[in-house]
Amino acid sequence: MSTISDFDSAASAGIDREHEVQLSLLRALCEALRAQCDGAQLSAMLEQLSDYCEAHFVSEELIMRQKSFDDYEDHIEDHSHMLDLLRAIAVDHATGRSSELTQKTGQALAFIETHINTRDRRFADFLRNDR
User: Is residue 112 within 8 Å of 22, Cβ to Cβ?
Assistant: First the structure.
């Protein structure tokens, strides 16, 4: 029979895998911008990244609420900020402001890397210790 400890371990491992995918998608977008890929390809990559981030954030926030995570409010502020960055990148792309895309995408990558290494690591520690 599974225990709550098994759930916490599985949740943490699943979230870590999602972070790897999230970072991979964002790094691929950065590389596509450097390679000056066509607009349609960039649009598709940006849409995939945005959709993935939204789904990941919803699932992560659900687990946080279920576990009464004490840093929930600050954590979701980071999620909102990241989604705002992605929306700004999408607007810049749609309006042809390509000179700002590389900079903003780099900012998004730096932000999410910091978020994963700080807030998400704290949440993973919380899950491990909440047994």
Answer: yes
